[in-house]
Design a protein that fits this description.
The structure is a homodimer. Chain A is α/β, with parallel strands linked by helices. The first copy, chain A, folds into two domains: about 290 residues, Queuine tRNA-ribosyltransferase-like (TIM Barrel, Alpha-Beta Barrel); about 90 residues, no CATH class. Helix content of chain A is about 40%, strand content about 15%. Chain A has an eight-stranded parallel beta barrel, surrounded by five helices. In chain A, strands 1-2-3 form a three-stranded antiparallel beta sheet. Chain A has a three-stranded antiparallel beta sheet with strand order 7-8-9. In chain A, helix 12 packs antiparallel against helix 14 and helix 14 runs antiparallel to helix 15.
């Protein structure tokens, strides 16, 4: 057992939404929490001081990227990820398994975790189009992949993943798993699930430190497989749980998967929905018992000039709480969002940000990324407050209107 | 007369080095001062809060770049440059004249302000190699140039330059001048000087606001022309003075130019050496009576992974107070410079910075730029302290040793 204590502090009477206090080696955080992604040991363009200042509680870095550059040993020599990247708070690393998916199925099937992510909107069911040869191969031993950087060959076994994550030194680490595609057959998904469970056992056996270890529930969109996986994981003495793999072909698929899974996972351990973080996804998942989310979209969208606006400023489900700074922007004189209290909105105009982005000035990326991270961080603060105050449904109605 | 008050506060007994208090519309600063360049209304990759925190006193933005994007009117609509870029302290804009040089002679002659800047080190006297057609043409009316962005035609007259700078709203603005090349003949430089003086008169006549207006001393490396230009400028009621144009073919040429010029410019007005900021240049110019410097090199070098180290950490004239983070770097565990107190060196290792730069992580540019700006800002603080304490020569000896 690693260092992890989870205390449920409040429950929403009308749903499975709950608040919690999660205590890990490098500090504590309140849940539901958004985990800010710093893929290569850096939250892109944003200084860790800024993250602290805006209330970010926890970050996540990627084992796959860091094992290639600079290498786990190099990070360990610098005293681990916390010291390396200047983040002294709670931190998660993933196992590298998702990148096997990205290098494998995502390439071969032309899909994301939900089919609709890759094809054009609304075309959820079109036939998959193989796009490029995949770069990863799954064997019982582990994941054999070619680096996306130089095509060098690497074997990522459960033991190697744990060893790397122990060298990196995050507070919560993940077992190695295979992330299947929404287009994978029942048979493939079932066999993959068993493989993931064997890898999880090997991950558990290899784990030697006081880092918390999270199991991952797989099973695609198949009810019996998800239930089997949830039961299998619940029976293992993991410190924490993550829900991974294909989340189906629609939001409704995702909701069902969460309902099957969270009815089984132990109530007294935190549940992390991997790689999801849209506003509507967050509300739907929180009320189905999810405690943690991670997603790269706040910083990725920001670098594209896509920034979030709150409901008070016109953000809604139809516009996805987004405006495009590079497109036509009204109210050029004001900030991105007059209802936002971030260090970008309180100091800079849309016009200035657009100028920075259109001229390629690097500061622009930092300022828009800061705004989007603040947006999602404050949303989670509001969600926690609402659960405690018994006003979760009101908050949800306010955000999802329109 | 614009808003500018300059008070000499101390003098070095052994040279013309002096400290001063310069008061302008948006605040005051101590001289000698390093002016941090924010070409397109942004000090590349660095948040203005970071500039304030490290003690940066004054910034400079470029009329040429801002007239093209986003346009002076767009900046004025946002309340001027201070509000636009979130810098509420003293600020300078240049006149756009130097870019006419960059687009003209610098392209045609393949040179910089000193010949040695463009060719390989040590080849000061090689024949100039025309490289590309120049993009600017000088007429009596002004500078006709093609935008480097879209080849659109623009005419920058003295009146237009002043109008733009008034819209931008910096504390100190510059007259339009022509910057000649170190390879320009005596006759060309002489005729250009007279043109610059006619433009200066027109700039002066066009100037209507309370911004301080600086004259620019031209004349290349020709003694009689520099003396003539210094006298002409000294007789004009400019608030401040800048020394521009070709600074010759060697450091000794530059020193002579400064000696000719500063013997004539009024002692009670600040003197700005345009576009120069190397450590050895700064010491040589300060002791010849220069009060202000600006240079893009701290941030430009930083983005290339070239960072400064202080004498205590091995920085000297031979290595130009530089190490290359992308090359082989010893003491990987430590910061760039253990003797540096900047927010990068107190938090991050060379190994991390190298990781960020080699993976293209945007944070790397911010952190190295912050370090280099801190380095030069602290150098100027030390110079001011040394002048006041009568230890300027000792400080110079410490820095220029090796």
């Amino acid at each position: 057992m690693g260092i992890l204590k989870f205390t449920v502090t409040a429950k929403d009477p009308g749903s499975l939404a709950r608040t919690g206090l999660l205590e890990v080696k490098h500090g504590s955080l309140e849940t539901p929490a958004f985990i800010v992604v710093g893929t290569r040991a850096s939250v892109k363009a944003v200084d860790p001081r800024e993250l602290k200042a805006m209330g970010v509680q926890i970050t996540l870095a990627n084992t796959y990227h860091l094992m290639l550059r600079p290498g786990a040993e190099a990070v360990a020599e610098q005293g681990g990820l916390h010291s390396f990247m200047g983040w002294d708070g709670p931190m998660v690393t993933d196992s590298g398994g998702f990148q096997a998916f990205s290098l494998g199925f995502a390439i071969e099937h032309g899909v994301g975790k939900m089919v609709k992510m890759f094809p054009a909107e609304g075309k959820h069911d079109r036939a998959p189009v193989p796009q490029r040869p995949k770069l990863a191969k799954i064997t019982d031993e582990g994941i054999l992949f070619h680096s996306h950087l130089d095509a060098s060959k690497h074997m990522l076994t459960p033991e190697r993943s744990i060893d790397i994550q122990e060298k990196l030194g995050a507070d919560i680490i993940l077992v190695l798993d295979e992330c299947t595609s929404p287009l994978s057959t029942y048979e493939y998904t079932r066999d993959s699930l068993e493989l993931s469970h064997r890898w999880a056992e090997r991950s558990f056996a290899a784990h030697k430190t006081d880092q918390a270890l999270a199991g991952i529930v797989q099973g695609g969109a198949y009810e019996d497989l998800r239930i089997h996986a949830a039961k299998w994981n619940a029976a293992m003495p993991f410190d924490s749980y993550a829900i991974g793999g294909s989340l189906g072909k629609s939001k409704d698929d995702m909701w069902r998967i969460l309902e099957w899974t969270n009815a089984i996972l132990p109530e007294n351990k935190p549940r992390h929905l991997l790689g999801i973080g849209g506003v509507d996804d967050v509300f739907g998942a929180v009320e189905r018992g999810i405690d943690m989310f991670d997603c790269i979209s706040p910083t990725r969208l920001a670098r594209m000039g896509i920034v979030h606006i709150r409901p008070e400023s016109g953000g809604n489900a139809a516009n996805k709480w987004r405006i495009h700074l590079n497109g036509s922007v009204k109210a050029e004189k004001g900030p991105i969002d007059p209802a936002c209290g971030c260090s970008t909105c309180t100091r800079f105009s849309r016009a200035y940000l657009r100028h920075l982005l259109s001229t390629g000035e690097l500061l622009g990326f930092a300022l828009t990324s800061t705004h989007n991270l603040y947006f999602i961080t404050k949303l989670f603060e509001e969600i926690r407050q609402a659960i405690k105050a018994g006003t979760y449904q009101d908050l949800k109605a306010k955000w999802l209107a329109g």
